[in-house]
Write a structure and sequence with these properties.
Blueprint lengths: L1 E5 L4 H12 L3 E5 L15 E3 L17 E4 L6 H6 L1 H22 L3 E5 L24 H20 L2 E7 L1 E3 L2 E2 L5 E2 L9 H9 L6 E4 L11 E2 L1 E3 H11 L8 E6 L5 E2 H12 L5 E4 L8 E2 L4 H7 L7 H14 L1
Parallel strand pairs: 1-2, 1-4, 2-3, 4-5, 5-6, 6-13, 7-12, 10-15, 11-16
Antiparallel strand pairs: 8-9, 11-14
Helix pairs in contact: 1-6, 3-4, 5-7, 5-9, 7-9
Length: about 325
Amino acid sequence: MRVLVTGGAGYIGSVVAAQLLAEGHEVVVVDDLSTGHKNAVPRGAEFHRTGITELGPVLGEWNLDAVVHFAAKSLVGESVEDPARYWNNNVVGSLALLDAMRAAGVGRIVFSSTAATYGEAVEMPIREDAPAAPTNPYGASKLAVDMALRNYADAYGMTAVSLRYFNVAGALRTEDGRSYGERHTTETHLIPLALRAVAGSGSTLSLYGTDYPTRDGTCVRDYIHVVDLGDAHLRALALGSPGEAHTINLGSGTGYSVREVLDTVSSVTGREVPVVETGRRSGDPATLIASNDRAGELLGWRPTRDLRQMVADAWDFYRQS
């Protein structure tokens, strides 16, 4: 299969591109490098530095079988401050990609969606039939693309799979010795922030809220290893027939508390995480966990790597970067 990976110079996109190559697929990577890194594009992938809105004239020349779509803006706070950027990039850009696919006769897409589409869900773990009520423009923009994919599948016979997940961690090391991991210019994720703190960057980690109704008073969130996540994307490429659109959660089904994450970071690194405890942040639910029942049924997928493996792989990548 010849697969286009949009955003393939980013964290998850580069991992999936590498996994596709390892499985014998041909890979074309598109990335404008606004947040990605050229040296994250795996060897063996064909690379084009361009945006997804500019693919119309060329997509038909690449003889593609499918698209895995990661290219998006993904900072929640930034989306609140500048929603136009998110609607233009995430929604307008995705529609341009879908129209380019239609014109080129490429009928299969796997979309990197998000569990932020659910907003502050009440029932845990969150199932795919939970009401979609995003609380920020980032989640709303992803939900809009999920809805467009269903419409395009119905009207134009495309095959679409939207994969919704919360927090991704860890790194991939390939047989050729290359590593693919998280290195965002603006970092908002707990595990890399904790690793920076223990590495002696001079920063402390803010712990927002210690009085939640959870097992240790801190928020519980869902984490999956990036390699497990990539495996789900590869499986999704084989799911469905023309006219079908599937929405599938990817999660642990159990989750980890903030303290459990920090304790694991300390255990793996042998260093205490410098923490400053502070009050709750507005809008932070106590628990967010995704059900993975549908992923098991449709993809035969379950996460196989635990929190310690995520932290250990992320720590190895951090020290090599």
